[in-house]
Each structure stands twice: as structure tokens, then as C-alpha cells.
Amino acid sequence: FPDNTFDIIWIMEVSHLIKDKKKLFSEAYRILKNNGEILLCDFMGNFKHNYLEGFKYYKNLFSYIKDMNTLNRTFGKAHLCTVNEKIEMMRKIGFVHFEQSDVSVNVFPTMYHWRNNVNNNLESISKLLKDDQIKDFLDSCNILERLFSDKILGYRFIKAVKTNILVNPNL
């Protein structure tokens, strides 16, 4: 898209799958009009440094690796960071006027509904997915519930505004 095209950019449930978040936010900044808003809803870690810190909440390395592999097979490889890390990346690019809220409690029931939808529609789903894919998905619902309950993972909303100030996106 050309520079300064959009008034609003909505990034929903994808940023955790993008490794180069600086590039994601730089592109969003580039195509937003001045005073345009970026809205971001996604999974974010509730840890201080990186996703490996979440390991300390697991009883053993095998359990942690097994769960992460299941989540990766089901949803794709996550590149999680905290809400503060995302805000800092966005701030360096030039975004200002941040608002954020933790909506984890509102998202938590999603895993229950996903699991029920699979169980209620198993015959139709079995025609589209292999048994091991269905098992991984159901296991992933349980893993996500545990990560949410243990406050390792959460779901956040971030809103910010593009300024008129020129900023070097290579920072």
C-alpha cells in the first residue's frame, strides 16, 4: 500500500506469529495517515523477558517442550513478547498515546467453546482433519487454558496513534 493510506489499522490475533515485529509496526506506521490509529489484539506473554521464562512454571523440561510443540503444530510457531515490549517497539517507531487493557478474562472462555464446537461437530470435522490434528487442537485448548490460568499467557488490546513526527524506522 502507498504511504499514508489508512485511518485505522486493525491487527488481530496474528502479531504473535510474526517474528519481525519491528517490521510489522514500521509498515503499519508507514501506511497509516497522520493521526491514524493502530489497534492490536493478541496473545501476549505475562513474563518479563521472553517465552522461555514461562518454562519456570512447568515442572519439567519435557512437559514444556511437549506443550510448546503441540501449540506450534496447531497454531504455528509463536514469537511472543509482553505488552510492554510491544509498546516499546511501537514507541521507538513513533507511535504515541498508548492505551492498553488486559482482556484475558473475556477471552478465556474461548477455549471451552472451541473444544465444545469440535466435540459437537466431530463427524464433519473428521472429514476435514486427521485424528492426530483434532487431538492436537483439543490438547491445545487445554494447554492454553492452563497458560491463561497460571498467568503465563494473556490476551491484550493495544491502541496507539501515529504522530506527524518523522522517525527513523531502523532504530
Walk me through this protein's architecture.
By secondary structure, the chain is an alpha+beta fold. Helix content is 45%, strand content 23%. It has 7 helices and 4 strands, in the order βαβααβααααβ. The protein has helices at residues 21-31, 61-75, 83-93, 104-107, 109-120, 122-126, 131-149, and strands at 6-12, 32-45, 95-102, 153-162. Strands 1-2-4-3 form a 4-stranded mixed beta sheet. α2 (61-75) packs across α7 (131-149). The radius of gyration is 18 Å and the shape is elongated.
Summarize the helices and strands and which ones pair or pack:
Blueprint: E1 6-12, H1 21-31, E2 32-45, H2 61-75, H3 83-93, E3 95-102, H4 104-107, H5 109-120, H6 122-126, H7 131-149, E4 153-162
Parallel strand pairs: 1-2
Antiparallel strand pairs: 2-4, 3-4
Helix pairs in contact: 1-3, 2-7, 5-7
Question: Characteristics of this structure?
Answer:
171 residues, alpha+beta, four-stranded mixed β-sheet, 7 helices, 45% helix
Report the β-strand fraction as a percent range: 15-25%
Structural class estimated from helices and strands: alpha+beta
> In DSSP terms, counting alpha (H) and pi (I) runs of 4 or more, how many helices?
7
Main beta sheet: 4 strands, mixed
Cα-atom Rg, whole angstroms? Answer: 18 Å
